[in-house]
Amino acid sequence: MNVTMLPGGTLRVPATTTLDNGTKVDGTRDIGRDDPEYSAWLALAQDEDEQRRRDVEERDSDREILTRWRTRRSA
Hints:
Low-confidence stretches: none
Number of helices: 2
Shape: flat
Oligomer: single chain
Largest sheet: 4 strands, mixed
Mean pLDDT: 90
Number of domains: 1
Strand content: 25-35%
Distance between the termini: 25 Å
Strand order of the largest sheet: 3-2-1-4
Radius of gyration: 18 Å
């Protein structure tokens, strides 16, 4: 789950929508400072640069684990 701090302070938060046929669709919605949920989401927000850095770190960690797994060492 990513909460993105957009320029100007708007937050892009996860949202699930249920279609008329019952299908659930995951997506996002933007909320502003006047939204009652803003302060709760703000604690989880990261700007796009922070998210990119975190994604790179996770990929590097995953790559390391996969390399150990392929060489049959303990993860």
